[in-house]
User: Fold 16S rRNA aminocarboxypropyltransferase from Candidatus Methanocrinis natronophilus.
Amino acid sequence: MDLLIYTADQCDPKRCTGRKLERFRLAQTTKRYNRLRGRLVLSPFCERALSPADRTEVGRGLAALDCSWAHAEEVFGKVRLNGRALPFLVAANPVNFGKPFKLSTVEAFAAALVILGEREQAEEILAKFSWGHVFLELNREPLAEYAAARDSREVVAIQGEYL
Assistant:
Protein backbone atom coordinates (compact mmCIF):
# COMPACT_ATOMS: atom_id res chain seq x y z
CA MET A 1 0.00 0.00 0.00
CA ASP A 2 1.32 3.45 -0.93
CA LEU A 3 2.26 5.64 2.08
CA LEU A 4 2.48 9.44 1.85
CA ILE A 5 3.56 11.77 4.64
CA TYR A 6 2.70 15.45 4.79
CA THR A 7 5.59 16.97 6.70
CA ALA A 8 5.32 20.20 8.64
CA ASP A 9 9.07 20.18 9.44
CA GLN A 10 8.42 20.50 13.18
CA CYS A 11 10.09 17.31 14.38
CA ASP A 12 13.66 16.64 15.40
CA PRO A 13 15.12 15.22 12.15
CA LYS A 14 17.11 12.64 14.10
CA ARG A 15 13.97 11.25 15.76
CA CYS A 16 11.51 11.71 12.90
CA THR A 17 10.09 8.33 11.93
CA GLY A 18 8.58 9.77 8.74
CA ARG A 19 11.96 10.90 7.43
CA LYS A 20 13.45 7.50 8.19
CA LEU A 21 10.67 5.81 6.22
CA GLU A 22 11.45 8.14 3.32
CA ARG A 23 15.19 7.38 3.50
CA PHE A 24 14.39 3.67 3.18
CA ARG A 25 11.94 4.40 0.33
CA LEU A 26 9.05 2.95 2.32
CA ALA A 27 7.07 6.22 2.12
CA GLN A 28 7.13 9.50 0.25
CA THR A 29 6.93 12.95 1.82
CA THR A 30 5.29 16.13 0.63
CA LYS A 31 4.74 19.69 1.80
CA ARG A 32 1.70 20.18 -0.41
CA TYR A 33 -1.79 19.45 0.97
CA ASN A 34 -3.22 18.80 -2.50
CA ARG A 35 -1.10 15.62 -2.79
CA LEU A 36 -3.23 14.14 0.01
CA ARG A 37 -6.31 14.00 -2.23
CA GLY A 38 -7.46 10.50 -3.10
CA ARG A 39 -5.84 9.03 0.00
CA LEU A 40 -7.21 8.01 3.36
CA VAL A 41 -5.68 10.48 5.84
CA LEU A 42 -4.94 9.30 9.38
CA SER A 43 -5.97 12.03 11.80
CA PRO A 44 -6.54 11.93 15.56
CA PHE A 45 -9.18 14.65 15.13
CA CYS A 46 -11.55 12.74 12.85
CA GLU A 47 -14.84 11.53 14.27
CA ARG A 48 -14.89 8.24 12.37
CA ALA A 49 -12.58 5.41 13.45
CA LEU A 50 -10.54 3.41 10.95
CA SER A 51 -11.92 -0.08 10.34
CA PRO A 52 -11.38 -2.94 7.89
CA ALA A 53 -14.40 -1.62 5.96
CA ASP A 54 -12.28 1.40 4.99
CA ARG A 55 -10.15 -0.75 2.71
CA THR A 56 -12.38 0.40 -0.16
CA GLU A 57 -11.73 4.07 0.81
CA VAL A 58 -7.95 3.85 0.61
CA GLY A 59 -7.82 4.83 -3.06
CA ARG A 60 -4.29 5.97 -3.82
CA GLY A 61 -3.04 4.87 -0.38
CA LEU A 62 -2.68 6.09 3.18
CA ALA A 63 -1.47 9.49 4.28
CA ALA A 64 -0.23 10.74 7.63
CA LEU A 65 0.56 14.24 8.82
CA ASP A 66 3.97 14.41 10.44
CA CYS A 67 4.16 17.26 12.94
CA SER A 68 4.92 17.99 16.56
CA TRP A 69 2.16 16.89 18.96
CA ALA A 70 2.33 20.44 20.38
CA HIS A 71 1.08 21.79 17.02
CA ALA A 72 -1.06 18.84 15.95
CA GLU A 73 -4.45 20.52 16.26
CA GLU A 74 -3.30 23.48 14.15
CA VAL A 75 -1.75 21.31 11.40
CA PHE A 76 -4.54 18.73 11.28
CA GLY A 77 -7.16 21.47 11.34
CA LYS A 78 -6.00 22.63 7.91
CA VAL A 79 -6.79 19.28 6.31
CA ARG A 80 -10.39 18.72 5.20
CA LEU A 81 -9.98 15.45 3.35
CA ASN A 82 -11.12 11.85 3.67
CA GLY A 83 -9.82 11.08 7.16
CA ARG A 84 -10.06 8.43 9.84
CA ALA A 85 -8.93 8.31 13.46
CA LEU A 86 -7.02 5.39 14.86
CA PRO A 87 -8.59 3.71 17.86
CA PHE A 88 -6.97 3.38 21.29
CA LEU A 89 -3.38 2.15 21.01
CA VAL A 90 -0.30 2.67 23.15
CA ALA A 91 2.91 4.21 21.79
CA ALA A 92 6.16 2.25 21.88
CA ASN A 93 8.42 4.98 20.48
CA PRO A 94 11.08 6.32 22.89
CA VAL A 95 9.57 9.83 23.03
CA ASN A 96 6.03 8.82 24.04
CA PHE A 97 6.46 5.25 25.29
CA GLY A 98 3.37 3.97 27.07
CA LYS A 99 1.24 7.00 26.26
CA PRO A 100 -2.13 6.23 24.68
CA PHE A 101 -2.91 7.84 21.32
CA LYS A 102 0.54 9.55 21.07
CA LEU A 103 1.77 7.48 18.15
CA SER A 104 4.67 8.33 15.89
CA THR A 105 4.10 8.43 12.14
CA VAL A 106 5.45 4.91 11.62
CA GLU A 107 3.27 3.58 14.46
CA ALA A 108 0.18 5.23 12.94
CA PHE A 109 0.91 3.73 9.54
CA ALA A 110 1.64 0.31 11.05
CA ALA A 111 -1.60 0.32 13.06
CA ALA A 112 -3.61 1.33 10.00
CA LEU A 113 -1.95 -1.33 7.88
CA VAL A 114 -2.73 -4.06 10.44
CA ILE A 115 -6.36 -2.94 10.72
CA LEU A 116 -6.66 -2.90 6.92
CA GLY A 117 -5.22 -6.41 6.61
CA GLU A 118 -1.66 -5.50 5.56
CA ARG A 119 0.25 -6.87 8.56
CA GLU A 120 3.30 -7.86 6.51
CA GLN A 121 3.82 -4.28 5.34
CA ALA A 122 3.31 -3.05 8.92
CA GLU A 123 6.07 -5.38 10.12
CA GLU A 124 8.32 -4.26 7.25
CA ILE A 125 8.12 -0.56 8.13
CA LEU A 126 8.46 -1.17 11.88
CA ALA A 127 11.54 -3.36 11.30
CA LYS A 128 13.56 -0.20 10.55
CA PHE A 129 13.24 0.85 14.21
CA SER A 130 14.87 -1.00 17.12
CA TRP A 131 11.65 -0.55 19.13
CA GLY A 132 9.27 -1.27 16.22
CA HIS A 133 8.42 -4.84 17.21
CA VAL A 134 7.49 -3.58 20.70
CA PHE A 135 4.62 -1.55 19.20
CA LEU A 136 3.01 -4.69 17.78
CA GLU A 137 3.62 -6.61 21.03
CA LEU A 138 2.13 -3.87 23.25
CA ASN A 139 -0.95 -3.60 21.04
CA ARG A 140 -1.30 -7.23 19.93
CA GLU A 141 -4.77 -7.84 21.37
CA PRO A 142 -6.48 -4.56 20.45
CA LEU A 143 -5.00 -4.61 16.93
CA ALA A 144 -6.27 -8.15 16.37
CA GLU A 145 -9.73 -7.16 17.58
CA TYR A 146 -9.84 -3.97 15.49
CA ALA A 147 -8.70 -5.92 12.41
CA ALA A 148 -11.55 -8.41 12.96
CA ALA A 149 -14.20 -5.70 13.34
CA ARG A 150 -16.78 -5.16 10.59
CA ASP A 151 -17.02 -1.38 10.68
CA SER A 152 -16.21 1.84 12.51
CA ARG A 153 -18.98 1.37 15.08
CA GLU A 154 -17.62 -2.02 16.06
CA VAL A 155 -14.08 -0.58 16.34
CA VAL A 156 -15.39 2.17 18.65
CA ALA A 157 -17.20 -0.44 20.78
CA ILE A 158 -14.00 -2.50 21.08
CA GLN A 159 -12.05 0.65 21.93
CA GLY A 160 -14.56 1.35 24.72
CA GLU A 161 -13.60 -1.93 26.36
CA TYR A 162 -9.97 -0.77 26.54
CA LEU A 163 -10.80 2.68 27.83
Remarks:
- The longest strand covers residues 3-7.
- Residues 105-115 form the longest helix (11 residues).
- The chain has a mean pLDDT of 88.
